[in-house]
Structure formats: structure tokens, C-alpha cells
Amino acid sequence: MKCSYAFPAALFGAAVVVIQPQLTVALSSKQVSDIAKQFTVRIDGEGIGSGIIFERKGDRYFVLTNRHVVYRDGRYEILAPDGDRYPVYYSQELPGLDLAVLEFISQKDYSTAKFGNSDQLTEGITVYAVGWAKIPGLDQPSYQFTKGDIRSRLQKPDEGYALVYDNEAIPGMSGGPLLDENGLVVGINGRATTPEGSTGTVLRLGIPINVFVAAKGNLRTPAITQESTNTQQPNNTQQQTNTQQQTNTQQPTRIATRTGKQQPSAESLISLGGAEAQKGDYQGAIAAYKQALQINPSHPDAYFQRAVAYYDLKNYQAAFEDLNQVVRLTPNSPVAYMNRGLTQDLLQRNQEAIKDYSKAISLNPNYAAAYLNRGAIKNELQDYQGGLSDLNQAINLKADYALAYLNRGDSYIGLKDYKRAIADLDEAIKLQPNNALAYSRRGFAYRQLQDYKKAALDYNMAIGIRPDLASAYFGRAFVRRRLQDQQGALADYSKIISISPKFAEAYYNRGLIYRDLGDNQKAIIDFQKAANLYQQQRKSEYYQDALQRIRELETQKAVKN
């Protein structure tokens, strides 16, 4: 445990954690998720993970998490349920258990978790794992909520891990709550294991909450060095100045350096890798995941997180190879197939991507993102009816899915039903007002209906949001030509070429404008550049057309001479 703030000595002597009696009426999954969101936090810093707000004393809140989440010395930060951030001021650990308690200060009113009775958990009981996880394609960790069943209880738990369950828990969820159907916390999620001789099933391990309740009186602060007891308060991003001034300056206010450091576990290295990735050091993250795999060569979470790091580095082949390992280790995981499908998609292996998305859907028929991605590929392959079917399903599952409306708009454009396309793109823009692609595609639909003024407005909006969006300049250039604004169109094509030098159509269309303006020499240069690119892209028909344009201009030149 590498997060050595000290709690006031009397804290846990005075605080009482109440175990709630089990209720008789189970809540819906959504109701449980809504409860969990109120007290589940994200922990950022030298490690990354999740935690549970379980106690409040005045302005002090206490968060339960895994010790491996805060293994390394350094500063840590709590991301509260409302999005506010707070520095961790103190922490303590429980000897022999992979548990730690952190403290932060806030005058806001945050909910605290209610504990259930984990002694009542038996095989077959439904549980929910909750936490924050980083997955490919998303810039930040996102809230995750998964459902599963208790598979067994271990008689000789290691570091407190006695609960075995089959929830899909993505790395980053370590330290998050395990809840029962009444919304009560019955455990702390923290590990993954692949049973020896199994067919690839990955099970998750958690620490029963009763273990924490029974042991909390043994919370301790590891020994710290003198230089670590800095009395200067760290900067606080929230408005808590008055509260901070009231804290005891004799207590350490930064992470301490300690003696007798223990060897890192695979879980702690995965947590450290997540922190490096969060800071943008993807190579550092990959190195940490590699160390984790040296400790446990069959750890699916290490492969998964390394794939995320490779994805962020745009090394999609390496990400694909790691996700192959995740699929091998977790063949019943829809998340594994979904993300491998994403890498196949980015590698232009469309049919293989469709197979992976289809497998994810077969494992989880309610996987809206898998329908979305499969529908988008079908659109790309001009199977617009197939794309429409998938995107209808995505929207049925998630009514506020902006990307699904955007892509269904593409389906309607492909089917030449431009009014329905505009309606869907209107909805996409309503849900995501800064989505440049939605404006650009709606501009295309208006263009097909010959409403050039509305098309121009949409292209202008798209370019205002994303000045590097070549397709929006291309559409605006088309509209400007229809409105007889040749100079404006010329400027747009030149902008496209500066953004995307291999955009053959931009050279071709700029060549047409130069030809119409009587600048045949510039036109020939652009047509030749377009012809070269078409040849490289194996577009023989377009290549021959560009050459024909050059021949016509050269013939005109010869006649004049």
C-alpha cells in the first residue's frame, strides 16, 4: 500500500458502520445502478481504480478501495459522483487484506453506501459489479455496471478474496462495489482469475464486506520518512479553502515514502499502467502491463488494458493481437469480441469485424454499441438495409444514442430517403450539438434536395466545430460551385489538399475550376496529381477520366499555338 496519509487516531473508534438488514423485494438492475452511482467514485493518481464512499464525519468523507489501487507513492485524486475532484489527504490499510481507506474533504452532501450482510451470499445469488473502466475508443474511463452470479466462496481466501462470481468486470473497476439485488454493498471487486483446466472462463474475485467491517479496527498507517511529513497543503481544485485551513497541519498532507516496500502484484501493476495511460504515457503503461503479464501470463485484464494503450497509440495491429489473447482467455465475453471487432474495423477487415460484432451480439443481445458498429460497417459496404436494421436495434436499446441516429442518417442517405436522413441527423445534433459529422452529413442531405442555403449553413457549422474536417470543405465547395462562387470553391479545395494531400477528388475538382477559369496550366497539374492518386488507389475508371481531361487541355493548347 503506497498511499500513506494518516487518519485521526480516534476516527474508527468513534465511527460505526451499520450492516443493513436484507430486504425482501429485489430492485431492478437500473434501480441498483442508480443507487451505486451515488457513492461510487473514481480514483486517479499514481494508480487508477474505483472506490466507495462509505462514511462521513462533518466535512470528511471516507472511501473504501483496494490497496493495490494506491500501491505507489504519489498524489491521488477522488472523482466524486457529481464530477468534482478532491485530493486524497489521508489513507490507511488493513494488514493481510487488499483493502485501503482514503479520506477527502468536501462541504458538499454526498451519499454514503449502505452495507449488506455478505455472510448471506451463497452460490447462485445475483450480484452487480460497478466501477470505472477505460475501453478502446473512449477518451476517458466510463462508468460500468455488470450483472452476474456468485459461483462459490473460498474457504482459504488470499488477502480477503473469498467471493467468486462471473460478472464481466473491466480493468479499472478494482475497488468498486459489489452489490446485491437490494442495492446494498456486499463486497469489494478486485481480482480476476482463470481457473486451471477451464474452457476459458474468467472469474472475478471480491472481498466480502463483512471482512472489512470485522477488521476495520485494525486500520493502520505505514511508517513514513520525516521528509514526507510536509505540512504544506496541496492545491485543491474545489472551493474548500476554509475547510483546508481547519485541518491539523501536523498530519502529513502528501503521500509518504515508506520502508519495507512489498513486491507489486499483477493487479497493482495494471492499476499503475492505467495511471500512466491516463497521463498520456502509453509506452509507460505498456511497460507496466508487460510486467503484470510476467507475473501472471494469463491475466486477461493486462492484455485488455495493453490493447487499449496500443489503440491510443493507433497501433491497431498490436491492439488486435492482445485482444486475441483476451478472446482466448474469455471466450464468453461480449466486451472482448466487441473491442476486437473495433480493431478489425480500423484495420479494414470488414467481414472479420462483422463476425466479431455478431458474436458480441449473440453473447449479449442488448449490446447497443455492437449493433451500432455492425450497422456502420454495413453502411460502408453499401448494405444500407442491413445497416438500417442494426441501427434501428441500437436506437431501440438506447433511445438517446446520438451516434446511432447519425449512422442511421447515413443508411437513409444511402437509400436516397433524404427527408428521413435529415430527421435522424436533427436528432443526432440535438443530442450532440457539437458533432461536426452530423452537420456535415445533414448538409449532404440538404444538398441532395437542392436546398443549397441550408446545406451551406450546415457545412459552415461543421467547419466551425472541426476546422480539419475535409469532408465538410468538400461539401461546401460543391455548394459554392452550385451558387456560382468559384473562388470560394477554389479556396475550399485548396484547404482540403492542405489537410489531406492524398484526397484525389479535391485535386480533380480544383482542376475543373482552374479549367473553367481559363488557367489550363494549373488545371493540367491538378488533373495529373489526381490521375497519379487514382492509379495508386486502383480506381482505373477515374484514372482514365483524369488522363482524358489532360489530353483535352493539351489539345486546346496545341491548337492555340
Outline:
This protein is 47% helix and 15% strand.
SSE class:
alpha+beta
In which order are the strands of the major sheet placed?
Answer: 5-4-1-2-3-7-6
Broad CATH class of the domain at 11-245: Mainly Beta
Overall geometry comes to elongated
Q: State the major sheet.
A: 7 strands, antiparallel
CATH topology of the domain at 11-245: Thrombin, subunit H
Helical fraction: 40-55%
Give the amount of beta strand, in percent.
15-25%
Number of helices: 21
Q: What would you report as the Rg, rounded to the nearest angstrom? A: 29 Å
Looking at the overall shape, the CATH architecture of the domain at 11-245 is: Beta Barrel
Annotation, overall tally of beta strands: 13
Mean pLDDT: 84
Distance between the termini: 85 Å
Uncertain residue segments: 1-24, 223-260
